[in-house]
Design a protein that fits this description.
Length: 253
């Protein structure tokens, strides 16, 4: 709570971030002692590529231009201006991956419980949905895509956005206010969410694919990578905002 109050960042997220980052030395040691020389050479390039892709998608957004007309408030006339409405490619963040992993953990758990009494069916169910199997990867990817659309629809309501724009005199150039604006935003958001959902599914499935192909212990899953990069970016933005409010030169200048 003190971390959050001081404006350094979200305290809980930073604690999770520290817990994940603390496993980096063990991961580096495992990578260095891996007998597979090809994996030892390729792994740094894969890690750099994954980090770059996550940052690119996390920061990717579609900027919808918004025009505000002149308004008379009391005896004053406010000048109209132009701004934009940012629609992020990955608006759901890491939540769909966590939900999908939780749902896919149910069948193996049920199978292990049933296997204590009925070893045949319970063992087969736990083996079928093993985290290292392709059934688990396919099921988790499908749930990630579904949860991405669901969580995006919950957090961003195009109808409310259109009503707020109409209320404050804003409009999208070339689009009529009201229902056409809501339909326009909904169409743009659906097109943005699909590649974001595919990206989340690919990031979540990548560690399992690497483990199956190289037989190496990969310490960081897709959820861990997304959390680490997301928290680092958010913390950097909050520190940048704090420095700009106090007229200090920022990190990015």
């Amino acid at each position: 709570e003190l971390i959050t109050q001081r404006g350094i960042g979200n305290g809980i997220s930073l604690l999770i971030f520290a817990s994940i980052v603390s496993r980096i030395p063990s991961g580096v040691t495992s990578w260095w002692n891996n007998p597979d020389q090809v994996f030892k050479v390729i792994m740094p390039f894969i890690a750099i590529g994954v980090v770059a892709a996550v940052v690119f998608v996390q920061e990717g957004q579609r900027r919808i231009p918004i025009q505000y007309a002149k308004r008379v408030i009391g005896r004053r006339m406010t000048q109209g201006g132009q701004t934009y409405l940012p629609l992020r490619v990955n608006m759901a963040g890491v939540i769909p991956v966590i939900f999908a992993a939780s749902v896919m953990a149910i069948p193996p758990t049920v199978g292990s419980l049933i296997g204590q009494n009925r070893k045949g069916f319970g063992t087969d169910l736990a083996t079928f949905f093993s985290p290292q199997g392709w059934h688990y990867i396919v099921g988790e990817s499908i749930f990630i895509i579904l949860f991405t659309y669901f969580y995006t629809a919950v957090t961003f309501n195009p109808v409310d956005q259109a009503d707020n724009l109409k209320k404050y005199g804003g409009f999208i150039p070339g689009v009529r206010p009201g229902r056409p604006t809501a339909e326009f935003l909904d169409r743009i958001l659906a097109r943005l969410t699909f590649p974001g959902a595919l990206f989340l599914a690919a990031i979540a499935a990548l560690p399992t694919v690497l483990i199956n192909q190289t037989n190496a212990n990969f310490f960081f899953g897709g959820t861990s990578i997304l959390i680490v990069i997301g928290v680092a970016l958010d913390t950097m933005k909050q520190l940048e905002a704090q420095l700009m409010m106090r007229n200090y030169e920022g990190f990015l200048k």
